[in-house]
Write a structure and sequence with these properties.
This protein is mainly α and about 130 residues long. The protein has five helices and no strands. α2 packs antiparallel against α5 and α3 runs antiparallel to α4.
Length: about 130
Amino acid sequence: MDVIEQVRNLGKAIQQDERFIRFAKARLANDEDKELQAAIGNFNIIRMELDKLMQADERDDAKVQELNENLRKVYGDIMSSEAMVEYNTAKAELDIMVNEINTIISKTLEGEDPETCEATACTGSCSTCGGCH
């Protein structure tokens, strides 16, 4: 079995992993959530309106402030929706798995034993860390 075939098998294994399945379901749920999609559309309209206003020769600061407040509110509503919370949680868990896979591949390419090398790498940023070992 060559390397590319093994990578394809890894891809199949990833798609069968519960973290990937959860993420795929959350993504589909978001895509099918008409209320969420309408809010995202509204967010984009407000953002475009704000961008246009910011580029105007004579800027209406009161209107800019109003649009900024509306944009923050709509964004907050989007990000706090149950569907988006589930999506972001599922994506974070999937990202951890992908980072672990990438770390093992990178360490293997540096000559470490793929059977025993750590699956986590310190990035220096505790915000992305799953904890020190």
